[in-house]
Amino acid sequence: MTRPVVILPDLHGRLDLLEGALEYAGREWGPQVHFLSLGDAIDRGPQSVACAGTLLDLARAGRATLLMGNHERMAQEGLQWYRAYLTSQDPADYRRALEGFRWWIGNGGESVRREVGALTLETFPTGLAEYLDTLTRVVYVTGDGEVHRAVPAEPSVLVAHASPPVQHRQYPSPESAALWLRPFEGPFPLPPGVTYSVHGHTPVRAPTRLARHVYLDLGAYETGRVALLTVRGPEDVAAPPPVTVLEGRGDPAAARRYPTFGEALPVGLAARTGGHP
Question: Contact 68/75 with Cβ under 8 angstroms?
């Protein structure tokens, strides 16, 4: 039985848009929908911890697969060294933990501090830590709605936060590159059998296709707009389907700052979420 897979791009703490997307997808495609988060669910916006908690609940119920974004990777850096320090009691590990924590706080994590109040390595929110532990980096979606961790035998869509995993001189591994690379650093080769790839990370004015890569990040945290790409069968694996754009509170004009490249994908429906004034 085919289940729809709804790909959710960067939410950046916009719990209202996440809830709107969940409600919309459930209404349109029923309870069998499986959600695939592209990462960067945290930072910048007002409810990062709540977004992470909602996604974690879905994953625990078997209703979502959660990918890591570069913001989750930054949040993870200090935490993993702090955990190492708790075992080693080595001051060098604690120094690395502080450096990683400051890296995150200076690049979006400050919004989490505002959300929860006091935020240190010692008081790192348990739910957020559990969310970070759940994340993977690259998956493949087949026409039956299954999500695979390795390239499957049948045709598939590669899904990762920023780009396909490729060798790049700036990053230690292909899966690290998949968290950071921008479209202008491609085009990126795809494995045999992968028809196209889907990413967030780089804000775009409209859902965009460049070569065999699709970009969905509409800057939700400031524009109030979120794009949903839904794979509902082999035809949606063969070519990108029309994209649904949900609109909530925000400033759509902020998208004028975003780059334009490639070709705009057709938008099958523009709908307002319940959070729209």
Answer: no
- 3-state class (DSSP) for residue 11: coil
> Which tokens hold the place of 49?
């911890």
Q: Which two tokens stand for residue 39?
A: 């990462």
Q: How many CB atoms lie within 10 A of CB 133?
A: 11
- How far CA 101 is from CA of 40, 73, 74, 108, 120, in Å, comes to 17, 11, 8, 11, 8
Per-residue pLDDT of the chain (277 residues; tens, 9 = 90+): 589 999 999 999 999 999 999 999 999 999 999 999 999 999 999 999 999 999 999 999 999 999 999 999 999 999 999 999 999 999 999 999 999 999 999 999 999 999 999 899 999 999 999 999 999 999 999 999 999 999 999 999 999 999 999 999 999 999 999 999 999 998 899 999 999 999 999 999 999 999 999 999 999 999 999 999 999 999 999 999 999 999 999 999 999 999 999 999 999 877 676 544 3
* pTM assigned to the model: 0.96
User: Largest Cα–Cα distance of the chain, in whole Å?
Assistant: 55
The CA angle 37-40-43, to the nearest 5 degrees, is 140
Task: Decide if 206 contacts 187 (C-beta within 8 A).
Answer: no
DSSP annotation of 110 reads H
H-state helical runs in the chain: 15-29, 48-60, 70-88, 91-104, 110-116, 126-134, 174-177, 220-223, 234-238
